[in-house]
Design brief:
This protein is of the alpha/beta class and about 550 residues long. A hairpin with a 7-residue loop joins strand 14 and strand 15. It has 19 helices and 20 strands.
Length: about 550
């Protein structure tokens, strides 16, 4: 029998990865990664203002490069039997478009204008706009934030597009609509980018744009115009319906088939947010929490609607019917900073390296975190240890608060760098426990935890602390490319090889490479330390 294959694309913050997978087994045949060239140069960003923008050409050029490289590694026979493409992206990463659905930055007059580019998920320039949206939602007859934990984030689309329109009046004459990165990529590959006909994904629309079938799609435009009349630019130019990940949104165009070296007409699957795709690749199902752990975290769970009784989980930043797996309620939570906190501390420790020759710096710098992990793991855990909080980049879940800040308490002159690092690692674990407990309080069953991402593969110490603090076993997904694998599963379903996502997932999902088991003695001490962390949370 002829073997068939699919491609899973994973658009990350810095680069895009292409994974070629066997459609029957999920075996990873070949992969390649391409960095976004302009982003790598630091263009269009101002970290001091929390402004992070990406040029649409970065996505196009990097996608073409990595797909061609991955199929070159796989070989001509494999390339000729690729039957579908799926993808995931960061979110909310929207862009303002013209009538044809072209991102404004692809028009000559706006090619160097950051406000005409994709606004990356971690851009925090729209805090004021998010506050105004929240005020309007909480004062109106319908609280459109009810399924977003009761709060709308500055990281999400409606706040971001309003900020750009306010900040840059010169764009207003050309703006017709907006598109999420996740919708636009599918439109590009299938030749359908017109705002009124482009397929819009349930995952991004539900979690980032307040789309909900209960109120007929997106919030009423009158609600938005109460915040600012500028929203009227989009009136009649958006969408009502959404499709779930894995839905076939069309076939690969002749143009893109030629550019990528693939057959025209192969299935293109609706995409999803990267962490949601990663959860599918890791094997998410009811009762399983998938933790995508890297610079920040994203915690994904699903539940049968019949088991939740229609209950809305309080303080969880997103719950959407069908956002992860069609037919199930998808929940998204997470921490705004995790590995970023460790990286911050490493940079703090690196400050004296500026005084030594550059050729000697790298060896020292590369060893800081491994050494801190080793020495912190050797320290005893006691009830009198320092306590830190994990809100260095604000608080995402539970109970969104972008203005919350990190703390380190209980320091004495006897505490060294490993002791502070230990407190920071424990803080990230305490933040994870707060999410776990909120899921339990809101009736979302969690029987098993699967971890994916960079940290689960790199830091046994961090994972053991996480297991001890949670008091639960944590499985580590074997695949280092769970997001791309999830996108490949979407492609397999869209190509008609399986009847639905769960069937494709059963055949193709990642196995587990190891399990961390909690230590009962340390768990008891961590219960006391966690109570102190919780007091910090209550006191703000």
């Amino acid at each position: 029998m002829k073997k068939e294959y699919v491609i899973g694309l994973d658009f990350g913050t810095d680069s895009v990865r292409s994974l070629v997978a066997d459609v029957c087994t999920g075996e990873e045949i070949a992969s390649a990664t391409a960095a976004y060239p302009r982003w790598a140069e630091g263009k269009y960003c101002d970290p001091s203002q929390n402004m992070y923008r990406q040029h649409p050409s970065d996505y196009i050029e990097a996608m073409e490069k990595c797909i061609r490289e991955s199929i070159a590694v796989a070989g001509d026979e494999v390339a000729g039997n690729i039957i579908g493409i799926g993808y995931d992206t960061t979110a909310s990463t929207p862009v303002l478009t013209d009538k044809e659905g072209t991102p404004l930055a692809l028009l000559p007059e706006f090619s160097e204008d950051p406000d005409a580019m994709f606004i990356l998920w971690k851009d925090h320039t729209a805090i004021r706009e998010a506050d105004e949206i929240n005020d309007a939602a909480h004062d109106g007859p319908t609280d459109y934030t009810v399924c977003s934990g009761g709060s709308y984030s500055c990281e999400w689309v409606w706040a971001k597009v309003l900020h750009c329109l306010r900040h840059n009046p010169g764009l207003r004459g050309r703006v017709w609509s907006w598109a999420e990165h996740c919708d636009w990529i599918g439109g590009v590959l299938t030749g359908n980018t017109a705002p009124e006909t482009m397929f819009r994904g349930r995952c991004t629309a539900g979690h980032k744009a307040m789309w909900n079938a209960a109120w007929g799609g997106l919030p009423d435009m009158g609600f938005f115009k109460k915040t600012d009349e500028l929203y009227s630019i989009f009136e009649g130019h958006l969408f009502t319906e959404t499709v779930t990940a894995g839905h076939k949104i069309g076939g690969l165009t002749e143009e893109w088939a030629g550019r990528l070296g693939l057959k025209p007409g192969i299935a293109v699957a609706m995409g999803a947010i990267d962490c949601h795709a990663g959860a599918v690749g890791a094997g998410i199902r009811p009762g399983v929490l998938v933790k995508v752990i890297g610079t920040s975290t994203c915690d994904i769970a699903v539940a049968d609607p019949g088991c939740t009784g229609g209950r809305i989980a309080k303080g969880i930043c997103g719950q959407v019917d069908g956002s992860v797996i069609p037919g199930l309620i998808g929940y998204e939570a997470g921490q705004s900073a995790f590995g970023d906190i460790y990286a911050w501390f490493r940079k703090l420790m690196e400050w004296p390296l500026g005084m030594i020759p550059e050729k000697d710096r790298k060896a020292v710098s590369d060893n800081i975190l491994p050494m801190l992990n080793r020495q912190a793991s050797a320290l005893e855990v006691t009830e009198n240890d320092p306590i830190a909080s994990d809100w260095f980049n604000g608080k995402r879940t539970p109970d969104l608060d972008p203005n919350r800040r990190g703390t380190i308490c209980g320091l004495t002159l006897s505490i060294g760098a490993p002791g502070i690092f230990k407190a920071l690692v424990e803080a990230t674990a305490f933040g994870a426990r707060a999410i776990d407990e909120r899921f339990a309080e809101e009736g979302v069953r969690i029987d098993e935890i699967i971890a994916v991402g960079g940290i689960p593969k790199k830091s046994p110490y961090v994972m053991q602390v996480l297991s001890d603090v949670l008091g639960k076993e944590i499985k580590v997904a074997d695949s280092g490319q769970a997001c791309a694998l999830g996108s490949a599963i979407f492609a397999a379903a869209a190509a008609g090889k399986y009847k639905d996502i769960p069937a494709a997932q059963k055949a193709m999902k990642s196995g587990c490479s190891g399990i961390y088991y909690p230590d009962a003695g340390r768990k008891k001490v961590y219960d006391t330390l966690y109570a102190k962390y919780s007091r910090l949370d209550r006191e703000g």
